[in-house]
Amino acid sequence: MDTVVKEPRPDSETRFDSARIAAAVEALATRHAGRDDVFRTAVAQLMKAELGAARAAAQKLLLKDRHGRRCAERLCLVQDEIIRILYTAATQHLYPTPIPSGAERMAVVATGGYGRGLMAPESDIDLLFILPYKQTAWGEQVAEAILYCLWDMGLKVGHATRSVDESIRQARGDMTIRTAILEMRFLTGDRPLYDELVERFDKEVVHGTAAEFVTAKLAEREERHRRAGQSRYLVEPNVKDGKGGLRDLHTLFWIAKYVYRVRETDELLERGVFDAQEYRTFRRCADFLWSVRCNLHFLSARAEERLSFDLQREIAVRLGYTSHPGMQDVERFMKHYFLVAKEVGDLTAILCAKLEDQQAKPAPVLSRMMARLRPGMNRRRVPESDDFIVDNNRINLGDPEVFKHDPVNLIRIFRLAQKNNLAFHPDAMRMVTRSLKLVNTELRENPEANRLFMEILTSNDAEVVLRRMNETGVLGHFIRSFGKIVSMMQFNMYHHYTVDEHLIRCIGFLQDIERGGVDELAMASDLMRKIRPEHRPVIYIAVLLHDIAKGRPEDHSIAGAKVARRLCPRLGFSPADTETVAWLIEEHLVMSTVAQSRDLSDRRTIENFAAVVQSVEQMKLLTILTTADIRGVGPGVWNGWKAQLLRTLYYETEPVLTGGFSEVNRAKRIAAAQAEFRQAFTDWPAEEIDAYVARHYPAYWLKVELPRKIRQARFIRASEQAGHKLAINVGFDEARGVTELTILAMDHPWLLSIIAGACASAGANIVDAQIYTTTDGRAVDTIAISREYDRDEDEGRRAKRIGEMIEQVLEGKLRLPEVVARRAAGRGKVRAFVVEPEVAINNQWSELYTVIEVSGLDRPGLLYELTTAISKLNLNIASAHVATFGERARDVFYVTDLLGAQINAPTRQAAIRSALLHLLSSDERAEQPAA
């Protein structure tokens, strides 16, 4: 951001003594006189060694002072000195010109990121060699000599060689070149050439083109965010290009530099773009992001910009974060990161407001369509309030004192914007943030403020408005428990967003559910229409609060219910409704767990779930909450299979709660599913379809979604017509990032274990499995494995290898334990996560089977190891329910002993638990995180 121009000087901090190194180059020139190639090689080797030592010193200082900006300045200074020394070597020893002509001049200039005077350890170097209008071969030779030496040092160099005229012409036509020249910084050579380019660039390119540049840069920013992932709350953020990252700060400074013609960031203060507090925020955000980025480069030894899980903990330790009760060191670090990203967003809004006031870009609105239909006047009073005005389709303050006069206005401004479909003027948002001290106990208890908040929560565009309330700090001050989870990340691979962003997104998906029309949310939409009208606000507040107690030592579901019991009366809920909200939060994980990890055709499963939900109305509310919660976790987590499982669980439980009555009883649902299949699948004659329908048990018709049923019917028929004993169909689910293998084989007691072992041998990690048998003894198993390759063709070949291995094992040609052992021996990857292994064994979830629930750190081959261990314990696996939640595997097995009875003896249960815990923890101990 700051253009840091350093004078050449020895730097004791980075152990880069320019005078000593220049003298060493002179000595090499004397020693290798007349042998230019040898001289070049020797110089490159010397410089590479000196750069390595300087980088090591810079990293040591970074670990000591934790100041990323200083580290970036030191590294840039070293690079500057290297280029100056190389320029001297090239012009005095390789291509000397005793009496240089006017054509034998050159200015070496740093451009782009390097031009800012700040450089991350593995960043590219961008150079511009400015030559005079009339040129000789000398300029190209000197440039090549410098570049080849930099390349020989292993550096990545972006470069261009141009005259001043050519630079001006290209800058006019190319915004990237224009931005690079905007940030140029003189390094060495002919200063007048550089000064000429600066002067002409200002007059001939910049003058009169501010609006064009700002529009292009903001559009570029939007596209960059789209590529990196739109939310600034993604839990593996891109430090450079992500929303709220360094590039956003760079864009701010580019725009300021171009529009206000400033050279240093402190001039933004003088020009009134930022006030003193905002400028301090700008510097603090930049310092923090540079600290993260420099550590990221040093730690990964490459230009890594993504703050991935496996690097987050180590960087947290490097930056001095420690664990607190309920929050790990890495979670505290990432919370700080997301708060900084939010502040970068605020700074962007402030600068854009200044530019919009100058008509540099069109004003935004919540709905551009509404703006076109209602262009209206530029400034007018907001309906229902004299305290606010409409300023170019944005809500603004009618008087700077509106919040002091009536603190309820801090909530009212958001409701009025929502009600009148107005965007928020950045000046108003700035004043809101500065007035947060007015959000006190009196305002929190104010009935009008709480009524307005509930209107915001339950009205259109709630997600957009709540996000703005969160970004200004109002939401976290008004609901203090929400403030505790702002920018909080959960150190796991399951959740894609910070806790506050997840909750706000869930409200958006709840509104999608209420609007209807989304096929994958159809059941929840239907239930939303059938809940009691007075429960509409109940489901909205339950969705907003369901993860409100994350990051506390206590279980977040229980602690969250306590928060709801304190908060809901204030928001106007009756004691009965308050208790319903608390119950929903306390039980919000139950339906998802039962649907994905229990046998839904087992009567005891359904009775136990019915005992938890207690009534059909509560089950409706829990189904809606569960749907919104899973959908809000991140892209690809919600899918047709999970929707079908929830639907099955709901309709299996309904008659238990109603004393036998169900809106759709079981027999009718099976018949309806079969009729739906017949109607959609008209490829075969009626008799053949009837025979096929009879081959599947009721559970298949209830639990498998229609598109999959149709695919599997075609696959089974084609395989049997071709006479295959074993057949595998490969499919790709892009949304979930998995490859699906559908396997048709004769049923076999060890089939699941064989499939899991074949996947493990191919390095494929199983993320879920759907296992069914037909009435004629065939197994139809669908296994989802994590993708390893980008191209479908490569994934297909891997699937074929797995199929061949399964066939060889079934035919006795291959011994799986040996193959899996060889694969496991080569696995030595350090894991970023620790998951406490758990094994639960009970006979309450089923009348016929003992249920073993296993939870631990997922790894390739885990399912194979578990199924093998269970079989060695002389247990029969009747059914398995396989699921992963990010890095956590949760596998449930319904088992009996070899005589078909439940496992009742406590000593036998203890032996099973001990064996499985040993299996889970043995690999986990071997793969402890580096930190």
Structural class by secondary-structure content: alpha+beta
- Globally, the shape reads globular
Low-confidence stretches: 1-10, 359-377, 826-830, 924-931
Helix proportion range = 55-70%
Number of strands: 16
Q: Strand content of the residues, in percent? A: 5-15%
**C-alpha termini separation:** 32 Å
Largest sheet: 8 strands, antiparallel
Notes on the structure:
This protein has 931 residues and is of the alpha+beta class. Helix content is 57%, strand content 11%. The chain has 41 helices and 16 strands. The strands form 3 sheets. Strands 9-10-12-11-15-16-14-13 form an 8-stranded antiparallel beta sheet. Strands 3-2-1-4 form a 4-stranded mixed beta sheet, sandwiched between helices. β6 (388-391) and β7 (394-397) form a beta hairpin. α3 (68-94) crosses α12, α26 (536-545) crosses α28 (575-586) and α29 crosses α32. The longest helix is centred in the first third of the chain and has 30 residues, at 36-65.
In short:
With 931 residues, the protein is of the alpha+beta class. It has 41 helices and 16 strands. An 8-stranded antiparallel sheet has the order 9-10-12-11-15-16-14-13. Strands 3-2-1-4 form a 4-stranded mixed sheet, with helices on both faces.
